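Protein modeling request. Please complete all fields; requests missing the sequence field cannot be processed.
Requester role: graduate student
Desired output: 3D structure, token encoding
Chains: 1
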Amino acid sequence: MVDNIGESITKAKTFCFASGQTVILDEDKIQKIPYLAALVSSGDCFESARNEHGHYKLDSHIEYKHFSFILESLSFHSVRQLFTHLPKQNDVTPIIALLDFLGIGPQPDPALREVDQIFFSTVVFSPLLEDYLHIIKPSVIQNMAVRFAIAMAKEEYDFTDCKVIDQIYWFVMFILSAYKFFGSRLRHHVYKIAEHCFSLFEPLLLKSLKKLIQRTQKDEKKYLITNEDGIDPDEDNLSSLEQLCDISSEKWPRYILGIEIRGND
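Delivered output (265 residues):
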């Protein structure tokens, strides 16, 4: 037992920031971050990789608070948690840039067609009800919303194309207004990214977005007051079956294992 502890200690490395702050990481975390793994592997070859204390020197642009959140994100089970766990006062854009720099960016950036399919291509016809039903799985559309926002922040879409901008704007409007499926933190970070992008490429759209935010906040407050059983979309919710058991009985027909069934109004 003692030998194992000693072995893990020797494998731990200390990294220092330009601010002078340091962080000690074990081999497992280092290997999960390609940038750190490369830095450690080159440490014996280049003296400049370490300071006078033998600590590995991180790039001067890496901030401690952003790096700390990324370390926390290594334990996340889904990409949506990048937005749902990040407090509103923190800017998500430098964190996205740092994820990319460290080589641990989330899943591939989705094409707009893929975003549209996940958001809106979930309508099926029910012969029993003789109506079209909209099947929504919150975790799936939340993950897609975050992947879409990250792609926006990285300017992976062609913002010089009017049709592309229109489609992006429509997706953003959907996310910001659908407070039943997207929590306030997720919507806040999506809005901040959209605000930055539109300010560069289509500033006239910002006024409409701000009005939508104000209207949605009012509607959300009313909804939360009148729906005591409402589940905060930002929280890591219970499993689907547990959610179903927690929902009052009169609402059961509208839910199937955590999937909301909505008829066309």
